[in-house]
TrEMBL record:
The keyword Membrane does not apply. One of its GO terms (molecular function) is transmembrane transporter activity. It comes from Candidatus Hakubella thermalkaliphila. This is Cell division transport system ATP-binding protein. PROSITE patterns: ABC_TRANSPORTER_1, ABC_TRANSPORTER_2. The lineage of its organism: Bacteria, Bacillati, Actinomycetota, Actinomycetota incertae sedis, Candidatus Hakubellales.
């Protein structure tokens, strides 16, 4: 599903964030990107979301080479990749429900879909009772689960065997 083939990303003339990286992530796999500061974790995510381009090499998502992806298809690509960031990226002035609903609002889902799906995904992460709380009222673990719920509510394509 995700393939990096000999990917290099250089910033400037001397700074390599990635050098000749190859990896395969199969459908249904969960991948954790870990490493010391400056190891290239954020660069991998930015390349995968097509926020930046590789200096060399190819990146494929669902069989499509990202170099050949039209700019108008980038939002669709990003909706189909569920990412959870270390700082969770929750909106502090919105409730838990509103934070999750926002992910659906920005892609134009109708209100009845939002009202149906948000409670389901809150139930899934075990935080239905926190729907009206704000991020600062939650523990770090709860904030992380809300971030997961927001990534999942767009329903990235299911793994198939």
């Amino acid at each position: 599903m995700i393939v990096f083939r000999n990917v290099t990303k250089r910033y400037g003339t001397k700074m390599f964030a990635l050098r000749n990286v190859s990896m395969n992530v199969e459908k249904g796999e969960f991948v954790f990107l870990v490493g010391r500061s400056g190891a290239g974790k954020s660069t991998v995510i930015k390349l995968l979301l097509k926020e930046i381009e590789p200096t060399s090499g190819d990146i494929f998502v669902a069989g499509k080479n990202l170099r050949q992806l039209s700019s108008w298809k980038i939002p669709q690509l990003r909706r189909n990749i569920g990412c959870i960031f270390q700082d969770f990226k929750l909106l502090p002035n919105k409730t838990v429900f509103e934070n999750i609903a926002f992910a659906l609002e920005v892609i134009g889902k109708p209100s009845y879909v939002i009202q149906s799906q948000v409670p389901q995904v809150l139930q899934l992460v075990g935080l239905a009772e926190k729907a009206e709380h704000y991020p600062h009222e939650l523990s770090a673990g709860e904030q992380q689960r809300i971030s997961m719920a927001r990534a999942f509510v767009n329903r990235p394509p299911p793994a198939s065997g």
